[in-house]
Design goal:
Helix content is about 25%, strand content about 30%. The chain has six helices and nine strands, in the order ββαβααβαβαββββα. It is globular, with a radius of gyration of 15 Å. With about 170 residues, it is α/β, with parallel strands linked by helices. The protein has one domain: Glutaredoxin. The chain has a five-stranded mixed β-sheet with strand order 5-4-3-8-9. Strands 1-2 form a two-stranded antiparallel sheet. A two-stranded antiparallel sheet has the order 6-7. The longest helix is centred in the N-terminal third of the chain and has 13 residues.
Amino acid sequence: MAYIKVNMVPAVDFKIRELGEWVSKTSYDIFGNKKVIVFALPGAFTPTCSTFQLPGYEEHYEAFKHVGIDEIYCLSVNDTFVMNAWADSLGIKNVKMLPDGSGEFTSGMGMDVAKDNLGFGIRSWRYAMIVENGVITEMFAEDDIADDHTEDPYDVSSPEYVLSKFTDI
């Protein structure tokens, strides 16, 4: 797993569209006074993200709640309209979408990578983390973080892998 350079989530304002209105939520609004899982991925509507990762976290939502997780967030360097449309297209009801349109949170995490080889620009490396009241307590980052990576690693950030770690935490 990749090394994480921070132990607190970055303090940013997320611009989110809810019920037709703009809402600004801070990192504290998202992470304060709760235990959450955030999984970050390269992009909405992409194959691995749409076929396995987002639907998998939705499928295992109740199991995560059972082990003490308050919320699950899907983060991507996409705008709120794209994230909301993607969730709607997959019938996501429980996992909350967290748009990082400018990549500010992703950069603050040290997880920003160039994906120019795919025409994506700057995106997030694939990872998952457990955050308790803003403190990162467990990090599950895919190996070999690199710009213009020719592969799309998907192993330790999967919901099945993260859920299996609750017996070890």
